[in-house]
Design goal:
Residues 1-251 form the ABC transporter domain. This protein is an alpha/beta fold. 39% of the residues lie in helices and 23% in strands. It folds into two domains: 1-79 and 170-261, P-loop containing nucleotide triphosphate hydrolases (Rossmann fold); 89-169, no CATH class. Strands 6-7-8-3-9-10 form a six-stranded mixed beta sheet, sandwiched between helices. β4 and β5 (65-66) form a beta hairpin. It starts with a strand and ends in a 10-residue tail after the last helix. The protein binds adenosine-5'-triphosphate (ATP). Adenosine-5'-triphosphate is lined by residues 13, 16, 18, 36, 38-44.
Length: 261
Amino acid sequence: MSLLDVSGLGIGFGGLRAVDNVGFSAEPGEIVSIIGPNGAGKTTLFNMISGVYLPDSGHVRLDGRDVTGAAPHRLARMGLTRTFQNLQIFQDMTVLENVIVGFHQSESGALLSDLLALPAARKRSEIARMQARELLRRVRLDKAAEELAGNLSYGALKRLEIVRALAMQPRVLLLDEPAAGCNAVETEEIDHLIVELAQSGIAILLVEHDMKMVMRISNHVVVLDHGEKIAEGSPESVSKNPDVIAAYLGAGDEESVDADS
Ligand SMILES: Nc1ncnc2c1ncn2[C@@H]1O[C@H](COP(=O)(O)OP(=O)(O)OP(=O)(O)O)[C@@H](O)[C@H]1O
């Protein structure tokens, strides 16, 4: 039994089969990347796994438990969390406050006692601050804890987005283009962070257009084209797969599956 098991997943929009019969699995500590040309169905697949879209076929299982169609906040409580392509950061809050908001998303029924500032709520909020600082240390953002998030560099914001997801203590973390818009140095920092998170036992699911990053850090790569899985395997094997090369050439993407290009 895998930590995450996706089988036969599919969804249609009108006449279009955006994702059809896609399956793969992920184990603790593994980095699994979903790649494919523009419009291949990567984001739609992520949206189904993370409960944003309800699939019309197939299953998502977490530790063997069928969680297909569960709402994102329920999935997060069960250990599956995601980040979004567009930053979901509160620019007018401090870096620390942004992480603390992440903790509150993982709690249920805490709001009333927090509003009334009951002793239990004060205690919980102290613990949340400590844990938030510890997470920020982990991604080397602790020195910026009291700064407004809006003042951070783009690369730091992308790392903050990941920390916020970590506040939910995920066992499976879905990262949607974590390096999009980052320069080479920022990409390398995110690259290291993802590897560290995987080493700590989290299963990482990655959608990323930076093919060099995908090839460098993935243990397993799943390739989609027109909503279907056309290949999967090690980064090396998929980058040499003729169907994969043809899909990228056919799509006329400026990116290439060949990480050396
Ligand atoms: N909500 C929706 N309604 C209708 N069609 C959609 C919807 N979401 C996605 N699609 C279509 O489904 C297909 C897959 O889109 P998706 O965004 O999942 O691809 P992608 O691989 O993530 O692309 P990109 O690399 O450009 O982000 C596309 O043809 C897209 O237009």
